[in-house]
Predict the structure.
Amino acid sequence: MIKISKSLYSHLYYTNVVWILFKSIKPTRHYLKEHSKEVPWHKAVEIILTTKNPRLKDGKFEIEKDGYYVLFEIKNKVLYVINAKKT
């Protein structure tokens, strides 16, 4: 498991398209209401931070890894987790 510090200042995220800079990671209301019981927050963050090349689709990023699916977007240097499911 990856330990995430609350003082996480910024993280460079490399995709096939571009380097992405974000200063924080936050759940959306949708994730909290619909998906947080199935995929805990620490697991969603771990999957995002350990994946090198998420797929870019319609302005959002998708990851399928280790039996999980995670959907997120980056706006104003904040990474928002939208969806996380077990596949």
